[in-house]
Amino acid sequence: MKSQGEIEAAISQGISRFEQEYMGRGPKDIQTHLIGDLVVVRLYGVLTAAEQHLVKTLQPEKGRDLLKQVRTQLIELARPLMEGMVQESTGVRVISLHHDISTATGEEVVVFTLAHPPKFREIKHR
User: Fold this and answer.
1) Global pTM value
2) Cα 74 to Cα 58: distance, rounded to the nearest angstrom
């Protein structure tokens, strides 16, 4: 049985690999938090140079909306892959996935809702 930290690390690695393969670059940093039946993944520095340029050169709301639409569509296409990776890491079926990205900060958040909280090995502190 995995520890909570091992589950979180496995999900971080899987999401980072997804970003590299599907988006063309990985995040500068990634944090995953297992909170009850939620998996919250926070990615920093995910915008590509082209995406940053797009957001800056078009009207602010138009560039932002276009970028969010493209990212959302890519996440939806890869949903089965991402949900499968989270299920494999946690041992629990994924019920839903929620996603958003900030064009101002380059931060992305992905939240997975699980069927129930996963079981994990407790770490004994000395």
Assistant:
1) 0.90
2) 21
